[in-house]
Amino acid sequence: MRKRDAIVRYTAPERINHWITAFCFMLAAVSGLGFFFPSFSWLTYILGTPQLARIAHPFIGVVMFASFIIMFLRYWRHNLINRGDIYWAKNIRKVIVNDEVDNTGRYNFGQKCVFWAAIVFLFLLLASGVVIWRPWFAPLFPLPVIRIGLMLHSFAAVSLIVVIMVHIYAALWVKGSVTAMAEGWVTQAWARKHHPRWFQEVLKKQEKNVK
Fold first, then answer.
1. Residue 191: its pLDDT value, please?
2. What is the DSSP letter of 174?
3. How many CB atoms lie within 10 A of CB 122?
4. What angle do CA 85, 91, 97 make, to 5 degrees?
5. Does domain 8-210 have CATH number 3.40.630.30?
6. Is 194 a catalytic residue?
7. Rounded to two decimals, what is the model's pTM?
8. Residue from 62, 78, 54, 75 nearest 21 by CA
């Protein structure tokens, strides 16, 4: 049941956008691991057959990139680094024990790092993916460039998987984060503790709407 003191953290379009990105990431990551590690080749059957997985993998990647770009346009302003983030990083020990520091806005420094790392690795995946995409684009590039593209694609993919694992762990660690993305709301106590500056901004908007 929705609590009376709940405030909106994410709207329905924002949540749909997030879960489309997450779903595409899972499919791309699982099938990609099946391509990269022979012992994991059985993972490609999640998309039907290995042949179908090879066809679908790049298209899923493009959809994931496009979906994340929408997220980027929504949130980039909230993820700009400021002085408070440096203070947050210096007091990471307090954060580890689930105690927030500084006057955190909508996102803390850790979340901002995940955000910017994701966009960098996604751009690398897109660029390298185009180079190695057979039969559409790969024939346009010489073999040495394709080999570099394969190495870069593998590096970016593994790096992004690690970043997302950190993202998932942090979401599970901070109680209430999963509810925020699943149902869209958080309690005022949660917002006041973890994102006090954002909480004050939300209250000011609510007061203006009432007036």
1. 92
2. S
3. 21
4. 115
5. no
6. no
7. 0.91
8. 62
Task: Give bridge partners of residue 8 from the DSSP assignment.
Answer: 185
Residue-range domain boundaries for the chain: 8-210
Instruction: Please pick, among 18, 153, 167, 195, the residue that the annotation labels catalytic.
Output: 167
Q: Are 10 and 180 in contact (CB under 8 A)?
A: yes
Cβ–Cβ under 8 Å, residues 102 and 84: yes
Contact 176, 190 (CB under 8 A): yes
pLDDT of residue 120: 98
What DSSP letter does each residue of 71-124 carry, written as one string? Answer: HHHHHGGGG---HHHHHHHHTHHHHHTT---S---SS-HHHHHHHHHHHHHHHH
The model's pLDDT over 177-193, given as tens digits with 9 standing for 90+, comes to: 999 999 999 999 999 98
Contact 24, 60 (CB under 8 A): yes
